[in-house]
Amino acid sequence: QKEVEQNSGPLSVPEGAIASLNCTYSDRVSQSFFWYRQYSGKSPELIMSIYSNGDKEDGRFTAQLNKASQYVSLLIRDSQPSDSATYLCAVIYSGTYKYIFGTGTRLKVLA
Amino acid sequence: DTAVSQTPKYLVTQMGNDKSIKCEQNLGHDTMYWYKQDSKKFLKIMFSYNNKELIINETVPNRFSPKSPDKAHLNLHINSLELGDSAVYFCASSRGTISNYGYTFGSGTRLTVV
Q1: What's the pLDDT tens digit per position in B29-62?
Q2: Helix, strand or coil, per DSSP, at residue B41
Q3: Residues in B lying within 8 Å of A, measured between beta carbons
Q4: Which of A20, A49, A103, A110 has the fewest other C-beta atoms within 10 Å?
Q5: Strand residue runs (E) in chain A
């Protein structure tokens, strides 16, 4: 069974620090990877997508993909209390039309 | 302008009732989805339609029936509601079938069965 695993947290970091969120997936032949942020009581919103090995930066966010090791991570630089949310990793497995979501990591940024 | 809108936002109903949730998107996307998020925040796909055609039908009870009258609308009808159906149901849409562009989610419908 294809799986996407995340540490549920909470991950607590002080304001201004780098938050590092990790996600591992089980299917070696996976094609697309996404990070979503979900505030409590709200819907998930797309932060970043990454398709190739390496880093992809967008503002304070950096997604890192390592297909050989089957993990994808999200770094949040200069963390702010407003970044406190649950971060969901999603993977599209080859030959399917659907995401498999991880269970999410709850991030708390302490002021 | 709301991109993906769901109604109702909250739904409280008794066991055994039949209810519907409606979803509409104005993004011009080809594909729409229904996801269920349980109390542990796990998002699980239920159905997906591409241009009114069902392309994903996960293992859900046949009490759940999706209907897509056109590519901008995807509704979910639930018969004989059970306590275990209580969850947040999200509608989403994406460009294309493989959804490489990511999803846009609606605001969710919190269903409580009592």
Answers
A1: 999 999 999 988 889 999 999 888 888 888 789 9
A2: coil
A3: 31, 33, 40-45, 48, 50, 55-56, 90, 97-108
A4: A110
A5: 4-5, 11-14, 19-25, 30-38, 45-50, 54-58, 61-66, 71-76, 85-93, 99-101, 105-110
